[in-house]
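Quick one, tokens below. Sequence please?
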């Protein structure tokens, strides 16, 4: 059972140290900082060291944004990370995913409507989640379009968002205002 209240509460802005303000300044979006960052700032050294990796995954990866978001949404769904799902539904829509595709991501790689490559992408997420290894057949399907860097970025994207999902779930990070979780 998931925590119904935060186990580690987000740090209120009035309590931020100068170091915390400096770390969180780039995370300010339209006058607010998301709950994930207000929670993780309770461990500034961890947040500061994780951010460059997370930035690569989200903004500098070799994956096409739409495909990256498909993988992130699928691992968020599999990990039952409602916070992750809610945030990345919005990011996924900006990356070109439709509402119908987002709903199909929850159904998985066998849902009708995916191209063979898209199904392989989602299957890779499922395989890493279930067995911590992509099968030879799925790897071969991914290699029809992905080069070495893209294959590595996919594995690290799924791994990063598995860790993020675990942290969000365990720490009890609440949805930000205006963000929907698993409900439409």
């Amino acid at each position: 059972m998931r925590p119904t209240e935060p186990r580690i509460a987000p740090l209120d802005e009035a309590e931020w140290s100068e170091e915390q303000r400096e770390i969180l300044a780039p995370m300010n979006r339209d006058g607010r900082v998301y709950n994930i960052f207000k929670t993780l700032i309770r461990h500034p050294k961890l947040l500061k060291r994780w951010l460059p990796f997370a930035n690569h995954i989200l903004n500098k990866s070799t994956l096409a944004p739409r495909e990256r978001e498909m993988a992130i949404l699928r691992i968020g769904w599999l990990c039952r990370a409602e916070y992750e799902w809610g945030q990345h539904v919005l990011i996924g829509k900006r990356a070109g995913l439709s509402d119908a595709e987002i709903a199909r991501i929850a159904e998985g790689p066998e849902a009708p409507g995916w191209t063979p490559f898209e199904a392989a992408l989602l299957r890779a997420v499922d395989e890493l989640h279930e067995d911590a290894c992509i099968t030879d057949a799925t790897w071969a399907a991914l290699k029809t379009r992905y080069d070495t860097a893209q294959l590595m970025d996919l594995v690290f994207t799924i791994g990063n968002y598995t860790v993020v999902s675990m942290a969000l779930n365990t720490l009890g990070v609440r949805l930000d205002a205006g963000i929907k979780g698993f409900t439409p």
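The chain has a mean pLDDT of 96. The chain has two domains: 13-59, 63-171.
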